[in-house]
Amino acid sequence: MEPSIFLEFRLPNAATWFYFSLFLTVALFFQFTRLISIRNLDLLMLFLLVPGFLLIQEAAALEQAGQGARAARERALGYGWLLAGSAYWFARSVLDLALTKRPPVSANVNIQGLSWLGLTLFVGLTAVAVRRTPDQSAQELVGTRPASIVQVENTASAVVEQAQSSNGVGASPDTVQFWAARGLAMLCHAAVLVGLVMIGWRHFGDPTAGVGAAALYTLLPYTAYNIGQYHHVLPTAFLVWAVFCYRRPALAGWLLGLAAGTSVFPALLFPLWFGFFSNRGASRFGLSFLTATVASIGVTALVLWIGPSQLNLVTALHLTEWKPWTVPTGESAWTGTHWAYRLPVFVLFVGFVAAVAVWPAPKNLSHLVAQSAAVLIGVQFWHADRGGQYVLWYLPLLLLMVLRPNLSAAEPPQVVPGSVLARWAGAAWRRVRGADPQQPGSKPLAV
Known about the structure:
The chain is an all-alpha fold. It has one domain (11-416). The protein is built from 19 helices and no strands. It has helices at 14-29, 38-45, 50-64, 68-95, 111-130, 134-137, 147-166, 173-202, 207-219, 221-225, 230-244, 249-262, 270-276, 282-305, 311-317, 339-358, 365-379, 395-403, 419-433. The longest helix is centred in the middle third of the chain and has 30 residues, at 173-202. The radius of gyration is 24 Å and the shape is globular.
């Protein structure tokens, strides 16, 4: 049966999506009454990395056409462009610490229009993601998937296969894996969108800012280019909700720990976040983070250990792209260079991570968002596997940074030592005795 022409829905090619998303972003968010402003510049610079993606995509097409020399030049230029754009946003994230006065967000369309745009774009992206075409089937994964994320995919595939077998419907393993991967990706993107809306509503005090960030997330080309790369967005979903829970150190630690258990890069945020909660729940955050990380990694290691081959565990721990003292094996700006040139960049990165753990003090939510984005952007400079292409790691943080209001008062709540345990103990005592013996006139439970 031939499919209907009304179901032949496809995204435009990469260049067309770049131009039209840029035009639409300017129409929706550009402040034409204040042409020279940091927010207008930020909106334009959100597209700064797109030419690098286009050059790398063109290099892949040239290589398939047998033009290897030109493809190598295009690829080198593309990664150079990505690192230059990443350097701009790294500097912008550091500069954001000094930008305390921020005017309120005023989009050129009301919140209902932004909500409609974001929802329809997400539905369109979902339709493209789950529509299996020959070009999508052969789409190359961008970067190496961590073992924990592979295990999540395998678990989801097993659930789908079990559901199909119970219903008497069979499907090939490739089909099950395709649907499991795309389903995970779209669930993670949906979690990021909801998280952005909730942060704007609860912490920015402006639902329009949250809805605008969500609409921009669906509109920017990076989301469309990597719509099926679930290993890019799964840790980011946990990270966005950890930002939402910044007033609850234990819950934020659990979410960031789960993110670190699915990939390596969220663990690099631990010193910054621990310094953010300094004297305001840092011990609870640290304990929750370590517990969640150890639990998620332990479950993955156990599953890999009892798998068909114990070499899977060794392979999972052999992450050459994260070791700056090893020869790069993946595709990146460091391909073909000696590892000694990458090591100084890593040392500078470690120094930056140590610095942001203690400066500035105390930190507020704007510092946390901007410095978290800076740390994740800094990873791109020494990561030896497609470094520069992992924009979805920090894109939600950039959107929050660009659209945020003044957050100088958004600090973690003061924590009195022992207050939580005291409340728990008091509640347990009242349940046992039926009354609070510290309050006059309380009556014990009748027997």
